[in-house]
Amino acid sequence: MKRILFVMLSAILLASCVAPEIQQPAPVTPAEPEKKPEPSVRPSEKVPQPPKIQSIDWQSIVQPLVDQMVNAHGVEAGKVLLVDSVKNNTNGSLRTLKATDALMSAISNKQAFQVVPKSQVHVARQALGLSAEDSLGLRSKSIGLARYLNADYVLYSVVANNQGQRDLEMQLMLVKTGEILWSGRGDVN
Questions:
Q1: Environment class of residue 80 by beta-carbon count within 10 Å: exposed (0-12), middle (13-18) or buried (19+)?
Q2: How far is Cα 96 from Cα 75, in angstroms, rounded to an integer?
Q3: Domain 58-187, what fold?
Q4: Which residue in 82, 100, 77, 76 sits closest to 144, CA to CA?
Q5: How many degrees, rounded to 5, is the angle at CA 78 between CA 149 and CA 147?
Q6: Would you list the domain boundaries of the chain?
Q7: What are the pLDDT digits (tens) for 26-42?
Q8: Cβ-contact 87, 137 below 8 angstroms
């Protein structure tokens, strides 16, 4: 019985095997590339100009505001001031680092405050886990950073759209209480 079963399975196996057919390769005929007419270039077409980057004179914008702030009621000279980086709350692109630098320069020139150096601010941001790109965004974060640095005041600044006009809004806050001692606004041209 085993032999019959073995013979039948062998027959089925051999019947299912088919000898491969030898196929001839398809003939290859080289095709000639089509010649397309070259597009004509019109010399009268002008290339559009890229948008111009608007240069803002931050020094002239921040100087009058710094003058007002230094002479504000309740502000004590010689205290430690943290100048928080200027935030951009517009839908456009602004060079806020230049604005922050102009603000620090104008305050340093007045010699009314001891401005916390950028290097100390950078180290404090790292210690608190804030990235260099974090513009703090919230007044509470600015005050927390100022407390960490033992500053007496923090200057919070933001550029915002106000009825189609961009304004630089600044607030000088007392770090102990968060009280706003002075606020000012200037047009950003």
A1: middle
A2: 26
A3: Rossmann fold (3.40.50)
A4: 82
A5: 20
A6: 58-187
A7: 788 787 777 777 766 66
A8: yes
